Amino acid sequence: MRAQFVMSEIGIGLRRNLTMTIAVVVSVALSLAMVGAALLLNAQVRDMRGYWGDKVEVSIFFCNKADAGQGAATVPGGASTDAIAPNCASGAATQTQMDTVRQQLQKTGLVEKFYTETPAQALDEFKKQDPKNPLIPSLTADSFQNSLRVKLTDPQKYQVVSGLVGGQPGVKEVQDQNEVLKPLFNLLNGAQIVAWIIMGVMAFVTVLLIVNTVRVSAFSRKRETGIMRLVGASNYYVQMPFIAEAAFAAVVGAALASAMLAVGKYLIIDRFLSQQVKLITFIGWGPVFQVMPLMLLAGLAVSSLAAFLTLRKYLRV
Question: To 5 degrees, how large is the angle CA 138–CA 142–CA 147?
Answer without folding.
Answer: 125
